[in-house]
Amino acid sequence: MGEEKKSLIKKIQSTGLMRKIMADYFYFLDRASKDENSKVAWCTSVGPAELLLSFDFAVHYPENHGAVLGSTRKANDYIPVANAIGYSPDICSYLTSDVGAYIRKETPLARAYEGITGLPKPDVLVYNTNQCRDVQDWFMWYSRELNVPAIGITSYRDLGEIKKEHLDGIVYQIKDLIPRLEEISGKKFDIDKFSHIMDLSKQCTVLWKKVLKTNEAVPAPLSFFDATIHMGPAVVLRGSEVAIDYYKVLLKELEERAANKDGAVEGEKYRIYWEGMPIWGKLRSMAEFFIELKAAVIASTYCNSWIFDDFDPSDPFLSMARAYTQIFIVRDENYKEHYIKDMADLYKIDGILFHDAKTCPNNSNNRYGMPERLEKTLGIPTLTINGDLNDLRCYSEEQSKTNIEAFIEQLESK
Ligand code: SF4
Q1: Spacing, Cα 360 to ligand 1 middle (Å)
Q2: Taking CB atoms and a 6 Å cutoff, what residues make up the pocket around ligand 1?
Q3: Which atom of ligand 1 is nearest to the CA of 277?
Q4: Which region holds residue 320: left if phi is over 0, alpha if psi is between -120 and 50, else beta?
Q5: Which of 63, 136, 197, 311 is the most buried (most CB within 10 A)?
Q6: Do 88 and 26 form a contact (C-beta atoms < 8 A)?
């Protein structure tokens, strides 16, 4: 038997701590689901989580479960199950894999964590359509299936300038959720508690942003592929002390690595921006492939999506409306173009890789001429690869690797 090939991926020491707090989180949800005195809410990943936490809901994020299905490569077992009940293979593959897994009564969490047998049963489903319509349709399916209320916020989309009237509309909708949440949770709304949780969420956001910004250093200490894993606490544990404490530890480690010029890619030659969704089932093989090419994928729109700088505990409703409306995915093409250009400058990017995710047009920004425009304004090459977040039938590894190699040769010749 041949020796197992040693991984080229450098270990991040904080990973053990992250795995522990994520495990604690899943066990917490499981306990809450079995405790008749606790209430569980399901929330979209950029939904009004802080409001739910202020009512003491244990909050489950189905998109996180979608990513777990993708990264454990189980998604393709379940997508056809949802297709069979009429949910198209062309719609969000988080939705189809999650719904398919539910129908089959399976979850990778049950294999990973002893004693967990399924997802926590919700008492309420709360969405924000700021990212896409799919999240609403996803929650509506569960609402019908489990006979649980689905309530939420219908957001604006494709916004350039964000105006007062946009924010007023969102504030109104956030406030409008409160009577239903009081009724379901059996608790009175507490503005001080809401402000406190907004404060905790803001602290988490500030630290996560600092973590990502350590990659301004050359060489960059954190790869995009590792960042997609380490952003887990910012997604599911924002609004808690645990997430804040974790990012302090991770930040310290990455600052030290940056100071010691200990890059994620040994001998970093090229710095790449990743635009679009991760390909969850291929994180490891992609990370190793880029390391072999001495190319560091070090910045992305995706990992920045959980930075909510504008949270302001002294004005929680308006600042929540602003923070969840000004995220990249909600904005128009001009805003997005400027955003990526600024990121490319900040991180000294040599080339931009666009991932055209078949089932997520909302997060595939190559479709309206953006790569071509950025090539002109930035004077750097771009590459578009076809794939998907979860549905690996849409991704050809061989073809993508050939295209990426040619792209790196192009960078070399520059
Ligand atoms: S933004 Fe894309 S990946 Fe996320 S829920 Fe919507 S369709 Fe799915």
Answers
A1: 6
A2: 63, 92, 94, 131-132, 134-135, 277, 360, 362-363, 389
A3: 3
A4: alpha
A5: 311
A6: no
- Nearest CA to 71 out of 220, 268, 380, 286 is that of 286
Q: Establish if 62 belongs to a structural domain.
A: yes
Classified as helix, coil or strand, 41 is strand
Residue 248 in any domain: the answer is no
- Mutate which of 280, 363, 367 to test ligand 1's pocket (most atoms within 8 Å of Cβ)? 363
Residue type, 12: I
290: Cβ contacts below 8 Å, ≥ 6 apart: 223, 265, 272, 296, 297, 404
290 touches 273 (CB < 8 A) = no
Residue 60 lies in a domain: yes
pLDDT tens sequence for the chain (414 residues): 445 567 889 999 999 999 999 999 999 999 999 999 999 999 999 999 999 999 999 999 999 999 999 999 999 999 999 999 999 999 999 999 999 999 999 999 999 999 999 999 999 999 999 999 999 999 999 999 999 999 999 999 999 999 999 999 999 999 999 999 999 999 999 999 999 999 999 999 999 999 999 999 999 999 999 999 999 999 999 999 999 999 999 999 999 999 999 999 999 999 999 999 999 999 999 999 999 999 999 999 999 999 999 999 999 999 999 999 999 999 999 999 999 999 999 999 999 999 999 999 999 999 999 999 999 999 999 999 999 999 999 999 999 999 999 999 999 998
For the CA of 95, the closest atom of ligand 1 is 8
Contact residues for 247 (Cβ-Cβ < 8 A; gap 6+) = 204, 207, 208, 210, 211, 233, 234
Q: Which of 14, 10, 11, 9 minimizes the C-alpha distance to 208?
A: 14
Residue whose CA is closest, atom 5 of ligand 1? 135
Domain that holds residue 117: 16-187
Is there a domain that residue 25 lies in? yes
Q: What is the dihedral of CA 378, 295, 333, 61, to 10 degrees?
A: -160
For the chain, how many structural domains are there in total? 1
Q: What is the CATH number of the domain that holds 26?
A: 3.40.50.11890
